[in-house]
Structures are given as C-alpha cells and as structure tokens.
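Intended use. Records like the one below are meant for learning the mapping from a protein sequence to its folded structure. Do not use them to infer anything beyond what is encoded.
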Amino acid sequence: MADFDQLTAPAGIGIRSLETVEQVFAAAAVLSEVWGGDRDAMPPNLLRALAHSGNYAVGLYDGERIVGASVAFFAAPAERSMHSHVTGVLAEYQGRGLGRLLKQHQRTWAFAHDVGHITWTFDPLVARNAYFNLVVLGARVTEYLVDQYGPMDDGVNRGDETDRLMASWALAAPAPTPEPGDVVATVAVPRDIEGLRRAVPVEAAAWRRRVRQQFAEQAASGLVVGGFDPDRGYLFVRG
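Structure written out for the chain above:
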C-alpha cells in the first residue's frame, strides 16, 4: 500500500473532526445531499452522539466549506475493529481521489486508537466501489447480505432491494491479489448500474436477482471472492 500511504491532500482540502453542533448539522446535510435528499442518511442527533462518545466522525473540507463526511463506530472491544457506516463526497468533488484520502485518514485514525480492522458494506452491483474496495484498498468480501437494510427511500436506493457485500479490511495486511490460475469462476456486474436504474429499471432489477443467485451458487460450491476485475467482475477462488 505504499502509494496509498503517501497520498497527500490537494491544496485547500482538509479533514477535521466534527466537534461542534454546527459542524455535525453541516455534515449531516452533506450526506443527505449525497444520498439524494435522504434526511435519514445520517441523523444529526445520532451523528452528534457518535462523535461525542469518541467514535470516528470527520468532515472533508474545501477551505471552510464542508464537502464530504465519514462516520464509523467501534465494534466489540476484544475485536479491535470498527464499522464504517457512511462515507460520502458531494458530486462535484467526486473523481478526485478524495474517497481514498478519507480512507487513508480513517486507517491512520484507527491505528492511533488500537484498531487494526475496519468493516463496511457496499452494493455488489456498483463496479467502481467493488474495484476501489477490493483492489485499491485490499479489503476482502466476507458475506453476501440479502436486502440488508430493507426498503430505503433515498435517491440512490429507492425502488431497489438493498443487497450488500460485507467488506473486511485488515489494515496492516497487504492487498490480496489472486493468481490467474487460482480464479475458478467469475460473476459479472454492469459497468454503470446507476445509469441502468434510471434508464431501464427492469433490467437493473434483473441484474440484482442474477448476481444474488450467482453469489449463492459460488458460496455453495465452497468458493470465496478473491478479487475484482473491471472486465470480468468478481473473481472467485477456492476457500
């Protein structure tokens, strides 16, 4: 992870802890905007409680303007782990490497608090997130969760079932990369599921059912996700 560790923030960009009520409300508003107007994306009162009790709660700033946020909470003490609940960056700031910057900061913060392991969930159909999580960060998929959060009434998830993959990131471990000969099966995903949901929602729903079924079949065969390839999708290896 040498390149990842050496990331530097662009000029004017900084990450700060959310320490005041005003900062908390601003962060909640940004996350609501990222998730298409969902006021429940991260309720300010809950965010304030998490921040005040010592969990990870930060804002991404361009000067004095908050443009992103990330929130994680501790797992059971013996696990030395925390769960990253939500991370979002405003649309105009996406594609600039700021998601990587937030994850770098989260990793450094975790080490400083005796945490060596971070988990989170992500939609298996979103190819760019799969690539970022499994290839860039080197996280592993530990579980396929069917309709994990139930119906969600936001601009990102509305009308779709909330299947998720559980990602597990061992912070000190090298990124796992399967050898070509170890890959015994693949599960493809669309290149742009968000666009497909808007243009052809029936086809997007068919992708959801297909990927869910294929993941279940691979798991039944004793296979696990070993990586991700933009052209082939999820790479399965023997567990």
